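Take a look at the protein record below and tell me what you see:
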Amino acid sequence: MTAEFRHSGWAVRGYRLYSLLASALMVLVGLCSSLEWWLDLNLVPDLGGRDMRLTAALCILLSGLALAAVGRGGKALRLAASLLCAAIIGLGADALLEHGVAGYRGVAGWLDAVSGAGVRPPVLMAELAACAFVLLGGQGILVLNSRAVVLREAFGLGVLAIAMASVASLAFLLAQRGESLLDHLPPLTGISLLFGTLGWMSSTPTTGLTRISTAATLGGVFARSLLLPALLLPLAYTFAFKLLETRFGVPQIIASTLGAVFTGGSVAWMIWLVAALLDRSERLREASLQLRDVADTDSLTGLGNRRKFDAEIDALLREYRQQRTPFSLLVLDVDHFKAYNDGYGHQAGDEALREIGRLLRTVLRPRDVAVRYGGEEFVLLVHGVRMPQLPVIAARILHTIRANDWPLLPLTASIGGAEVCDADSAATLLQRADASLYRAKRNGRDRFEAMGCAECFASRSAPPALRAREWDQPPPGCRGGVAA
C-alpha cells in the first residue's frame, strides 16, 4: 500500500505566490519591450547582446497573461489561456521559419512594418529564443489542461537549460571576450524565459518536478534548501570572478584559483547543510521513538501497556485476515496477589510484579508480546501458534514463575488461553481467554486452561499452523497441572 503523499502547506502557497509574481514580471517586461518597439522608447535595461525582438516581447507578454490564468476561472478562461500559449508556439515556429527559409518574412516582418520598426536594423528572433518559446507554449498548454506531466516537465527543463545558458553568458559580456551566446539569445529574453518556465512549474506545485520540493518530508526540505543555491551559485561565481579579471585587473590564474576555492567551499557548505538536516532529523526521530516507547511501556514492569496491546492485537488480526497467519492470546494472573500485597506491603507487591515482567521477557520469544493489562494481570500475544501448542507454552511459563527464587513467599500464576478464529475481534478473543483464566482459577490455580470456538475447530481450510519449535519440548522438571 502506497503511503499518502503529504505536502507542506506553506511551501505550496510559496510556489503559487512565485507563479503569480513571475506572471506579473513577464507581463511587465513583455509590455515594456513591446512599447519600446512601437514608441521607440528606452523602457527596459540594456543588458548587452542583441535587443529583444518584438515577437519575443509579445511571446513573453502572452505567456505572462496565460500563466496568470492557472487555477482561476472556469473552462472558458483555460481555453483562452491555451489559445495564448498556442499563439506563442506559432510565433516561435514562425521565427524558426525565418531562419530556415531564405526570404521568408512572416508574422515578424509584418509586425516590424506595422510597428514602425524600420528605424532600427531589422533583426530576427534568436534561434534559441524561438525554440524556447515553442517549448514554453507547449508547457503552458499541458499545464492548463492537466495533461502529460512527464512531457510538460521535459518542455520546462528544455526552456530552463536554454535560459540558464543565456544568463551564464552574461559573464562573457563582463569579460569582453567578443561573441558569446548573447549574440544568439538576448539576456533579458533568457531571464524572462527562466522566470516563465519556473512560474509554469510552480503553478502546479503538487505535481511534476515541484511535487518533491513541496513534500512535507526530509526530501522536500533538502529540495527547498539546496535547489536554488545549486542553480544560482555557479552563475554568481562566473559573474563575480570574470568581473574581477576584466574590470579590476586580477590575473586570470588568481581569479580561477579564487573561483575553485569558492566553488569547493560552496559544495562543502551544501554537504554540511545536508549533514545538519540529517542530524536534526535523526535526533528528532530518536526522540519521537523514545516518546512512543514511553507511551507504550508500563513504567513498573517494563512490559507493554494497554496502548501497546491494542496496537499489536489490531495488527495481528489484520495479518490473520489477510495472510491467515495464526496467533494465540494468553491471560496470566498472579495467584493470591491481593493477600501477598496486603501482607508484605505495596512496595513488595511492586517488586513481585517487576520480577514477573522480567521472567516473562526471559521465557518468551523476541517476536512475542507481553503487556501488563492491569494490576496483577498480564496478556501475552504468541505469534504463529495454535491451540495444540498452548499447553506446552503455558507449562514453561508456569514452571518459570513457580521455580523462581522468591525472597518472601513463593508465587504462582494461572493462565487462560485462546487461539484466534475467523469471527474473532480483539474483544471476543480476550473474552474467551479471560473465561479460560477464571476456569483455571476455579480448578485450583497454578494451571492453564484454554477455550476454543466452533469455527476454530470446524475450519480446516486455513494453511497449516506455523510450528513454534521453541515450544515443542517442555523444560526439565516441569510438572503437570496443564489442561486444554
